[in-house]
Structures are given as structure tokens and as C-alpha cells.
Amino acid sequence: MHATRITTNRPVDDIESAKGFYTGFLGLRDEEFNLGWVARFTNPETGAHVQLVTRDADAPVDSDISVHTPDVEAAYEEAKRLGYEIVLPLKTEPWGVRRFFVRAPDGTVVNVVRHAD
Q: What is the torsion angle, in degrees rounded to the nearest 10, for the CA atoms of residue 12, residue 45, residue 69 and residue 96?
């Protein structure tokens, strides 16, 4: 698999309540997206970012990290071939991403994702 970006998914109770700290104090001013249950805030100069998650809208568990890859289908087949636990099967979500969840041997749940073109 080829990872192009890795983002920690920080659990929060309420994105709007947490937003001020991350955008104000930490300077992550750009809101790349906000779906109400997940949002990413980025510093436009450095690219530093955080992703806040209240509860995944369409998965049985929340993921700990998101790994972006250009070929999510190949990553899915590789994860299955290597015998890793698939927590969420490969699917296209209504908000435009194609993704699956895989559990690392240490228990970390990884959201492997490709954004739609």
C-alpha cells in the first residue's frame, strides 16, 4: 500500500465546542470540511492539521487514524491477503469517499480512504 497522508482522528464530544481551541489557539484556521460528526482543521502555511470525530456516521466503531491512498481497492485486497481483520468492508460513502476499516495487530482501527476525484 502507498500512504500519501496519515491523519489522527481525535475523539471529541462536540466539534463546534472543540473548534475554537484548534482554530484559535493552535492556528488551524482552514476548515477543510465539516460533516457535523467529523471535521478537519488545517494551518494553511504549514499543513499541520487535526481531524475531530464525534462518532463515525456509517461504521460499527470509530477509527483511530485515517490513511489516504490513491488505490484503496489494492490496499483492501492486500489487507485481506495478509489476513488482517476487516472492520468495515470496502464501500463508497454518500459524502464522496471510498474506504474500509482494518484493525492493526495492536488493535488500532485504521480508516483507509481515497477521496473521490
A: 60
The model carries a pTM of: 0.85
CATH number, domain 5-115 = 3.10.180.10
Per-residue pLDDT of the chain (117 residues; tens, 9 = 90+): 899 989 989 999 999 999 999 999 999 999 999 999 999 999 999 999 999 999 988 888 999 999 999 999 999 999 999 999 999 999 999 888 999 999 999 999 999 999 875
Report residue 62 CA to chain centroid gap. 9
Closest among 25, 17, 68 to 43, alpha carbons compared: 25
